[in-house]
Design a protein that fits this description.
Layout lengths: L1 H14 L6 H7 L1 H17 L3 H15 L2 E2 L4 E2 L4 E3 L5 E2 L4 E2 L4 E3 L4 E3 L11 E2 L4 E2 L4 E3 L3 E2 L4 E2 L4 E2 L7 E4 L4 E4 L20 H21 L23
Helix pairs in contact: 1-3, 3-4
Amino acid sequence: MLAALRRDLQAAAGRDPAARGTLELMLCYPGLHALWGHRVSHRLWQHDRKLAGRLVSAAARCLTGVDIHPGAVLGPGLFIDHGTGVVIGETAEVGADVTIYQDGVTLGGTSLHRGKRHPTVGDRVTIGAGAKILGPITVGHDSRIGANAVVVKPVPPDSVVVGVPGQIIHRSQPRPAGASPDLDHTLLPDLVGVSLHTLLTRIEELEARATGTPARPDRHPATAQVWYDQDFSI
């Protein structure tokens, strides 16, 4: 237990550049407090003291805003940044060195039946703010779940998931071992934007063939990220 608590502390110190010391982490980080509370409640749950485990879990939720069921299995080195509104269900399993950035993340169930209802998250996975991973699915090692993605199907290792519902993109170059968490959301692919761009380009080509006029310039330059010459109802 002490070794697990120590590793949780080291994970928070290594993944939050705002952390300025061990004492600050121990006193001021609700994600860390929620995780430590879960370590205690999970131990009680394992020793068939389930009511006591639920009481500790409820107290931790009131103090931190993080709702972790005592039956969930959380691996070493998990870091929950900020944490408000994070929900982790009873049969969820989280591997080692996972990072949850940040509020509103849910590892939830999709069934009212007993048994495995919640996801299994592999090692070194990064979960962006507001992401929802639902059902008894597996998220492979070293994957990245983009902010606000809704994941409802299994994710292979070394993948990126974006969108609603989540679209899986396999990394062409797997992340090297020991790399820091992948958090740069400016690098997430825009699947909808690319699809619309391709569709508009195709329409321009077809209109040009039908009318015999040259196609208009690209409406959506890749470097500008701005839509031109098109009215949208907003």
